[in-house]
Request: fold
Amino acid sequence: MRDRDRRNNRRSSAGSWFRCVRCGQPISADAPGTEHRNHCPWCLWSRHVDDRPGDRRAECGGAMEPIAVWSRRGGDWAVIHQCRSCGALHSNRIAGDDNELALVAIAVRAIAQPPFPLSRVAPDLPMPETAL
Ligand SMILES: [Zn+2]
Ligand SMILES: [Zn+2]
Reply:
Protein backbone atom coordinates (compact mmCIF):
# COMPACT_ATOMS: atom_id res chain seq x y z
CA MET A 1 0.00 0.00 0.00
CA ARG A 2 2.79 2.36 0.93
CA ASP A 3 4.54 1.46 -2.33
CA ARG A 4 1.46 2.40 -4.30
CA ASP A 5 1.12 5.74 -2.53
CA ARG A 6 4.72 6.58 -3.30
CA ARG A 7 4.23 5.68 -6.94
CA ASN A 8 1.11 7.83 -7.16
CA ASN A 9 3.06 10.84 -5.96
CA ARG A 10 5.42 10.59 -8.90
CA ARG A 11 4.54 11.87 -12.34
CA SER A 12 4.28 8.50 -13.94
CA SER A 13 1.61 6.15 -12.72
CA ALA A 14 2.55 3.40 -15.16
CA GLY A 15 1.16 0.04 -14.24
CA SER A 16 -1.25 1.19 -11.53
CA TRP A 17 -4.97 0.86 -11.81
CA PHE A 18 -8.16 1.53 -9.90
CA ARG A 19 -11.72 0.32 -9.91
CA CYS A 20 -14.53 2.65 -10.97
CA VAL A 21 -16.71 3.81 -8.05
CA ARG A 22 -19.77 3.75 -10.29
CA CYS A 23 -19.62 0.89 -12.78
CA GLY A 24 -16.88 -1.25 -11.20
CA GLN A 25 -14.69 -1.49 -14.31
CA PRO A 26 -10.96 -1.93 -13.65
CA ILE A 27 -9.24 1.14 -15.09
CA SER A 28 -5.58 1.64 -15.94
CA ALA A 29 -4.21 4.91 -14.57
CA ASP A 30 -2.49 5.46 -17.92
CA ALA A 31 -4.64 7.32 -20.40
CA PRO A 32 -3.94 8.77 -23.84
CA GLY A 33 -3.86 12.55 -23.84
CA THR A 34 -3.62 13.14 -20.09
CA GLU A 35 -1.05 12.69 -17.33
CA HIS A 36 -3.53 11.81 -14.64
CA ARG A 37 -6.42 9.59 -15.49
CA ASN A 38 -8.86 10.46 -12.78
CA HIS A 39 -12.16 9.30 -14.17
CA CYS A 40 -13.65 6.18 -15.67
CA PRO A 41 -13.52 6.14 -19.50
CA TRP A 42 -16.81 4.20 -19.58
CA CYS A 43 -19.16 6.15 -17.30
CA LEU A 44 -16.92 9.19 -16.58
CA TRP A 45 -17.42 9.01 -12.80
CA SER A 46 -14.45 9.81 -10.59
CA ARG A 47 -13.40 9.60 -6.95
CA HIS A 48 -12.48 12.56 -4.77
CA VAL A 49 -8.82 11.80 -4.08
CA ASP A 50 -7.12 14.96 -5.39
CA ASP A 51 -7.13 18.57 -4.25
CA ARG A 52 -5.20 19.43 -7.39
CA PRO A 53 -4.94 17.06 -10.36
CA GLY A 54 -2.78 14.09 -9.43
CA ASP A 55 -1.77 15.15 -5.90
CA ARG A 56 -3.83 12.45 -4.07
CA ARG A 57 -4.16 14.79 -1.07
CA ALA A 58 -7.93 14.86 -0.61
CA GLU A 59 -9.13 12.72 2.26
CA CYS A 60 -12.77 12.73 1.19
CA GLY A 61 -12.79 9.71 -1.13
CA GLY A 62 -16.39 10.38 -2.20
CA ALA A 63 -17.81 9.42 -5.59
CA MET A 64 -17.68 12.29 -8.08
CA GLU A 65 -20.48 12.60 -10.60
CA PRO A 66 -19.81 14.05 -14.08
CA ILE A 67 -22.32 16.92 -14.20
CA ALA A 68 -21.19 19.06 -17.13
CA VAL A 69 -18.81 19.36 -20.05
CA TRP A 70 -17.16 22.60 -21.03
CA SER A 71 -14.96 23.65 -23.92
CA ARG A 72 -11.57 24.98 -22.88
CA ARG A 73 -9.63 27.58 -24.77
CA GLY A 74 -8.17 25.82 -27.78
CA GLY A 75 -11.10 23.47 -28.08
CA ASP A 76 -10.24 20.74 -25.56
CA TRP A 77 -13.16 19.46 -23.56
CA ALA A 78 -13.13 19.09 -19.81
CA VAL A 79 -15.61 17.42 -17.48
CA ILE A 80 -16.92 19.10 -14.35
CA HIS A 81 -17.12 16.57 -11.54
CA GLN A 82 -19.09 17.17 -8.36
CA CYS A 83 -18.38 15.16 -5.23
CA ARG A 84 -21.47 13.38 -3.89
CA SER A 85 -20.03 13.49 -0.36
CA CYS A 86 -18.67 17.01 0.11
CA GLY A 87 -19.96 18.90 -2.94
CA ALA A 88 -16.50 19.90 -4.25
CA LEU A 89 -16.35 20.78 -7.94
CA HIS A 90 -13.38 19.78 -10.08
CA SER A 91 -12.63 20.29 -13.75
CA ASN A 92 -10.79 17.46 -15.48
CA ARG A 93 -9.57 17.20 -19.05
CA ILE A 94 -11.09 14.38 -21.00
CA ALA A 95 -8.86 11.50 -22.09
CA GLY A 96 -8.48 10.20 -25.62
CA ASP A 97 -10.41 7.02 -24.87
CA ASP A 98 -13.31 8.50 -22.89
CA ASN A 99 -16.74 7.26 -23.95
CA GLU A 100 -17.82 9.77 -26.60
CA LEU A 101 -21.51 9.01 -26.24
CA ALA A 102 -21.37 9.63 -22.49
CA LEU A 103 -19.54 12.93 -23.08
CA VAL A 104 -22.07 14.14 -25.65
CA ALA A 105 -24.98 13.06 -23.42
CA ILE A 106 -23.66 15.30 -20.65
CA ALA A 107 -22.90 18.15 -23.05
CA VAL A 108 -26.46 18.29 -24.44
CA ARG A 109 -28.23 17.66 -21.12
CA ALA A 110 -28.88 21.34 -20.42
CA ILE A 111 -30.16 22.00 -23.95
CA ALA A 112 -32.34 18.90 -23.84
CA GLN A 113 -34.01 20.05 -20.62
CA PRO A 114 -34.38 23.84 -20.82
CA PRO A 115 -36.06 25.45 -17.81
CA PHE A 116 -38.03 27.67 -20.24
CA PRO A 117 -39.70 27.06 -23.62
CA LEU A 118 -37.16 27.23 -26.45
CA SER A 119 -39.83 28.97 -28.57
CA ARG A 120 -39.41 31.97 -26.27
CA VAL A 121 -35.71 32.25 -27.26
CA ALA A 122 -36.41 32.22 -31.00
CA PRO A 123 -40.15 32.83 -31.47
CA ASP A 124 -39.93 33.02 -35.26
CA LEU A 125 -38.30 29.64 -35.67
CA PRO A 126 -40.68 26.90 -36.71
CA MET A 127 -40.76 24.50 -33.78
CA PRO A 128 -41.57 20.85 -34.29
CA GLU A 129 -44.88 19.83 -32.77
CA THR A 130 -44.26 17.97 -29.55
CA ALA A 131 -46.48 14.94 -29.51
CA LEU A 132 -47.26 13.99 -25.93
ZN1 LIG B 1 -17.26 3.72 -14.57
ZN1 LIG C 1 -15.49 15.05 -1.61
Observations:
- The first strand starts at residue 17 and ends at 19.
